[in-house]
Write a structure and sequence with these properties.
Layout lengths: L5 E10 L2 E10 L2 E7 L2 E8 L4 H11 L9 E7 L4 E6 L13 E3 L12 H6 L11 H14 L1 H6 L3 E6 L4 E7 L2 H15 L7 E4 L5 H10 L3 E4 L5 H9 L3 E7 L2 E4 L18
Parallel strand pairs: 3-6, 4-7, 10-11, 11-12
Antiparallel strand pairs: 1-2, 3-4, 5-6, 8-9, 8-10, 12-13
């Protein structure tokens, strides 16, 4: 049986000058190994939810597949922590494109940067979508308010796919890249067009996060935190609008600011 998303643990808490015995809710850390066409491909440490979306999104992000129907079968043995995937066409796992690796749950630890397949699958955005600053702030607030697991544990990242006015789907995981892969997998399974959508994200915009967004195909990434310098360089090159520090009614636009527009006062020219 698959582990639950959270578990209860007895802890000792220091509060108001006293040590108190208390029960706390802890997020689950779950290893999932992908067996691709009978060969071990990668092991992810993740939150055990939406695992089918995670596997499909990860394989698409790695360039193994482009569409859901390229997978002939997908079986997840949640008790043992394995995902068995068979693809319709033969897939090359040449070291030129992939490496068998352990993928850590946070901060990109254990991940190698910018494989050939990253360059092949990261899309230069052609999105013409625009948002107002107020819409950016509203979408961030909506995502944060919907994150019950973060409120309960404080131990997860959140990502959401949004239209300019509402959240379409949100996903939670201990790994920031996993949360984005779940979004990607959901889009592929449900054939959701993404060019007119936005990624809203709880963590900082690292180069890895920016690449994930580019692979999904969106043109705007919103974050409550900061970007890295390499992420900004990539966003500029890939024609992606990166917006950070969305908090307290403020935000910073780091790249392609033409997509963030201020509405004109409708009474501006009234006599």
């Amino acid at each position: 049986m698959m582990d639950s998303i959270t578990v209860k643990k007895e802890i000792v808490k220091f509060e108001d000058g006293q040590l108190i015995d208390e029960e706390d809710l802890i997020v689950t850390e779950y290893p999932l190994t992908i067996i691709l066409n009978q060969q071990e491909f990668a092991t992810m440490v993740c939150t055990p939810s939406e695992l089918d979306e995670l596997v499909i999104g990860f394989l698409a992000s790695e360039g193994v597949i482009r569409f859901r129907d390229e997978i002939k079968s997908l079986h997840i043995d949640s008790g043992q922590g394995y995902a068995y995937v068979e693809t319709v066409a033969e897939v090359s796992t040449s070291q030129e494109y992939y490496s068998k690796r352990f993928i850590g749950s946070c901060c990109g630890k254990g991940r190698q940067f910018y494989f050939v397949n990253d360059a092949k699958t990261a899309k230069t955005s052609t999105s013409t979508l625009t948002l107002t600053p107020e819409e950016c702030i509203s979408l961030m607030n909506e995502m944060q308010q919907s994150s019950t697991i973060f409120k309960d544990t404080g131990g997860v990242h959140n990502a959401a796919l949004c239209s300019p006015t509402n959240m379409i789907v949100n996903r939670t995981d201990i790994g920031r890249h996993n949360a984005l892969d779940k979004i990607y997998g959901h889009c592929l399974i449900n054939k959701i067009p993404v060019r007119d959508k936005v990624i809203v994200f709880s963590g900082r915009i690292s180069s890895e996060v920016l690449l994930k967004a580019a692979k999904i195909g969106v043109g705007i990434v919103l974050s409550k935190s900061a970007p890295t310098d390499l992420a900004i360089k990539m966003a500029d090159e890939l024609n992606i609008t990166a917006v950070g520090f969305i908090r307290g009614g403020k935000l910073n636009v780091y790249t392609h600011p033409e997509r963030i527009v201020q509405l004109q006062d409708s009474f501006e020219n009234t006599p």
